[in-house]
Amino acid sequence: MAAYLVRRILWIGPVLFAVALITFVLMHQVPGGPWDRAKRLPPQALENVNLQYGLDQPVWEQFGRYLLDLAQGDLGASFRSRNRPVADVLADGIRVSATLGLLALAVSVTVGVGLGVVSALRRNTVLDYAAVAFATVGASVPSFILGMLLLVLFTARLHWLPSGGWGSPQQAVMPVAALSALPAAYIARVTRASMLDVLQQEYVRTARAKGLRERAVVLRHMLRNALIPVLTVIGPVGAMLVTGSFVVEHLFAIPGIGRTFVNSISARDYGVIMGTTLFYTFVVAVANLVVDALYAVVDPRIRYEAHG
Amino acid sequence: MVETAHGLVRSRAAAFDGATAPRLGQGWWGSALRRLLRHRAAVAGLIVIGVLGLMALLAPWVDRQGPTSQQLDATLSGPSARFWLGTDQLGRDQYSRLVHGARVSLTIGVLTQAVAVGLGLAVGMAAGLGGRRADALLMRLTDVAYAFPDLLMIILLVSIFGASVTMLVLAIGLVSWTTIARLVRGQILSLREEEFVLAARALGASRWRIAWHHLLPNLLGPVIITAAFGVPAAIFAEAALAFIGLGLPPPTPSWGRLVTDSFGAMFAAPHLVVTSCLAVALTMMSFTFLGDGLRDALDPRTPVRRPLPEADLMEEGERKATQRRRAA
């Protein structure tokens, strides 16, 4: 296991390098440059800024320099935000996206586990059917479609909630709801299946037989075991939520990392494009690693080092 | 002893090798189809997809007017006999635009998966059959492609090459093949050790024959399931791109375009948002249901989903037993 983990961790390096290389080459192929404005810069000024940022050099040299800086922890400066360090720009976006994502994660775990447990305990009742219906429908409606429908209802019709922005609790309600519906549905599905599995275990019967109250049986004996498969789901769901959703952030005008990326593409803000891409790749790689490791911890039958 | 074992392998191998894939599969595919048709959600999904597909195919005949024709005397009107689902900012009939949009979005959804399946099968089979070195190389490549954030890659590609249906299909296809490649390789590695492959090899079947006649039919199930789940993902990607301003240029009536346009009229004409969002959501849901049904039908390892899951049945039996005991 240890050897496998070390191998996987070391492998993140080359993957990041490859992703950086591909992104760097691709983004320099995007037509236009960072200084293209409605008002054209005088040729001499353009030459000067290009010289200052090394944009006059071949892409390979620029990439080499970028890697050298990166090795020293320097992500460069943002063109769009008047030379603010890219790290600062990213940190702003990440803070917002992570807050939104953690809220959505908390909601989806609470709702998902709650629904899953209730529908397993009250299976084949109206409650169960409602929960299963939610889990089925919710798992296939994308976040921004749901977000739009929420907007139409709560903003355009009822005027209860602001249409967007970030900062107040009211502004967080709809984005969190839109983001958490799908993972909540998914978690509810997994929890229900796993609870039904646990329900028929001998140890549950034993717990009941020795006269434990139902509450204790459910919480201490069933839930604890039923949540193991749910844990492995939370990894990727968490990574997905915390790294933000381009579309939901765009929809609700939330200054998160997804919006930062979309803006950086249209502004040809090379440093920020690289920074966000590497950040995303890193988070996803780590999340996948954690999930695979968790699987092995949860299910001792999975052995990774077995010859290949 | 050895003779009998050999004879057994031989007869089984002959049964496998003599029958070509379709004949061999007929019973199996037939029963898979029956299982699929028992899956109510999947059947509902299939019906919706069928109706939408037909409407998309026959768009120029079932629309009420051209998708771009404008009635400037009736902009942002509500649903009426003349405009079934109302009109947008430019007085274009929402129903007609949705029907034509189905063409674009379904084309993107299905063609994208064709690209993904093609690439995934090619890479996965090459890795699974091509020897240790090819396997290592191709799988590292797959790892990198898998690690690349999907939407970032699509956005970059679309920014470089411009948005057209072809480009969207290629860009989305290019990020969707990794799951299939991994799946195919994994399946091949385990199928390779199966007796029927050994038997085929013992009978002198060539590598290609084994790959084509023995491995491919066994791979198709999981690949089809993955592709079914890939279609809604592609439809979503198109809509998401359009929404952040990188989608197909107007006036192409893709669903992403419709959703985006309707968003601007959220206050004046909420029915536009609702109808275009429902079209996207309903289609994505239908494909997901179909995928669920296919998974149950094509994967013989998972038991067919019954109205009552296994656990319920056992509990049910127990309860009845207890009742009987009490009654006695």
Outline the structure in words.
The complex is a heterodimer of chains A (308) and B (328). With 308 residues, chain A is an all-alpha fold. Chain A has a domain at 93-255: MetI-like (MetI-like fold), CATH 1.10.3720.10. Chain A is built from twelve helices and no strands. In chain A, α1 (2-29) runs antiparallel to α12 (270-298) and α4 (86-121) packs antiparallel against α5. Chain B is mainly alpha-helical and 328 residues long. Chain B is 76% helix and 0% strand. Chain B has helices spanning 2-18, 21-38, 40-57, 59-62, 94-129, 132-147, 150-161, 165-191, 195-202, 207-243, 255-264, 270-298, 310-327.
Give me a quick take on this structure.
The complex is a heterodimer of chains A (308) and B (328). Chain A is an all-alpha fold. Chain A has twelve helices and no strands.
Task: Considering the chains and any ligands shown, give keywords for the structure.
heterodimer, A: 308 residues, mainly alpha, MetI-like fold, 12 helices, B: 328 residues, disordered N terminus, disordered C terminus
